[in-house]
Design goal:
By secondary structure, this protein is an alpha+beta fold. It is built from 5 helices and 6 strands; from the N terminus they run ααβββαβββαα. The protein is about 30% helix and about 15% strand.
Length: about 160
């Protein structure tokens, strides 16, 4: 009676491994809800994390990367964020043309304050252009708007200036 090669290959029962209690594995719930979410437990305190553009339609954005480096943004290595990339991956954490970068939180706060100051100054400049200064700075006359309506008369039409074409 010939022994089949298959029986020689399997000396152990395949279910034997299942009977042994392996280390308890857990799964990350909601893993696919937001691919750009960075879990708080992986972040270092006093560091700011943001996704920054690395490529657009497959083309690397080198000029943008130089600007980011000048503002102290550094790419986060996959080894610093376990679970964000495959276990054996050597490189930076990236998703869909974006790379995860970090820098000290105080630099990000300074940048936000600078943006706010610039925005407020632009609004103030525009208000001045439109004559929306404070009440005590310039004379104003409140427009008188009537809520009543009536048909247009000939005298109303006569007071309207027609602009020639």
């Amino acid at each position: 009676m010939a022994v089949s090669p298959r029986s020689e290959m399997r000396q152990d029962d395949a279910r034997e491994n299942l009977r042994e209690e392996p280390a308890r594995l857990t799964r990350r719930r909601g893993l696919h809800t937001d691919k750009y979410h960075v879990p708080d437990d992986l972040k270092q305190p006093d560091m700011s994390y943001e996704w920054k553009t690395a490529t657009v339609t497959g083309m690397e954005q080198m000029e943008h990367q130089v600007e980011l480096a000048a503002n102290h943004w550094k790419p986060v290595l996959a080894s610093e964020m376990p679970g964000m990339m495959p276990a054996d991956y050597k490189g930076h954490v990236n998703r869909g043309g974006q790379v995860l970068m970090c820098r000290p939180e105080y630099l990000t706060q300074e940048a936000h304050e600078e943006i706010l100051d610039t925005s407020l100054q632009r609004v103030k400049n525009q208000e001045q252009r439109l004559g929306m200064s404070n009440r005590d700075e310039a004379p104003r006359t409140a427009p008188k708007v009537s809520r009543a309506y009536s048909p247009v008369t000939r005298s109303d039409k006569a007071s309207v200036r027609v602009i020639p074409e």
